[in-house]
Amino acid sequence: MKIVLNTEYASQNGKNEIHLGELVPCFENHTRIDKIIETLQQNDWSHLEKPNDFGLAPILEIHESSYVNFLKTIWQEWLAEGNTNDILPYIWPIPGLKRNIAHNNLNAKIGSFAFSNGTPIMAGTWLSAYTGAQSALTAMSQVIAGEKSAFSLSRPPGHHAHAGFYGGYCFLNNIAIAAQFALKNGANKVAILDIDYHHGNGTQDIFYQRKDVLTLSLHGDPSTNFPYFTGKIDEIGEHDGEGYNKNYPLPDGTDFHLWHNTLEQACGEITNFGADYLLIALGVDTFEGDPISNFKLTTDDYLQVSKTINAIGLPTVFILEGGYSVGPIGKNVFNVLSEFMV
Ligand code: Q9C
Ligand code: ZN
Predict the structure, then answer these.
(1) 3-state secondary structure of 275
(2) Which ligand is located closest to the Cα atom of residue 320?
(3) Which residues are near ligand 2, the ion (C-beta closer than 5 Å)?
(4) Which ligand is nearest to the Cα of residue 28, counting in written order?
(5) How much is the pLDDT for 327?
(6) Active-site residues: which are they?
(7) pLDDT tens-digit readout, 129-139
(8) What is residue 46's DSSP assignment?
(9) pLDDT digits (tens, 9 = 90+) for 171-188
């Protein structure tokens, strides 16, 4: 397998988010990747590829240009008004308020491009997110070129990002960008399997009306978990995409037995679909020690996850998403990749 490192992974360096009514240090921080790199090195895997630059075009295949422009320019606009702290949205034009995304006030504009408040923007955000998308594209291109598997080792994550707004620690939907790139480069169908603890709302929405991308997500039931407003079982896609989105919400406290049975169901769907490539939104926030989640998977359980995904037999791209228990994150990720690490 090839592992591509987002060389700008530390440039996103937010200070705080609100957690249970309190300002706390961001859970999604660079120590996550530091730890994964350390574990890879301890296991004699020190060769990390650098991302190639595919430019903006593959990003604009997925994201609205007004939104990309916002991400590129908002920090300079914020500085120009004399601000120095991270940008956090605090007002949103939800139904009932008049929606005007062309608003000139920065706070109004920021809320128009965001859906949640825990995702700070600072000087390095655009470079970090852009290079992360390039890492995903580089991993995808390796697999298109014949590698059996590749891993984009990157933060910030991507699966919560929609075509036109950010949130849930995500700015650019890396896995959607990579999937679309595969379709533009010869693939007829791709499957996206999201095993992060949280529903992949951005990915679902981006491909909701399409039948060339099967989107599947296993996650904490949105009745009690972020992102709350999406991820239910009756969200099955629409128009051409009807039947090509499947959600597997699981109850709080889910253990490996139930989680893995569900994973096998999802793998069956992928096999029936007949994809050319499989893309995995790899979050290890399903780990029993995760500070913001409550599933019960253990470090050893991820070895079996690797076997089950490998048994599908498709060329596979892994894209890092969440996982906030920093101590064990390296081993947890390493174990998911283990069957592919040849
Ligand atoms: N303030 C990913 O795992 N809310 N995103 C958490 C604590 C946001 C998770 C509540 C969770 C987003 C990629
Ligand atoms: Zn997550």
Answers:
(1) coil
(2) 1
(3) 196-198, 283, 285, 322
(4) 1
(5) 97
(6) 160
(7) 999 999 999 99
(8) -
(9) 999 999 999 999 999 999
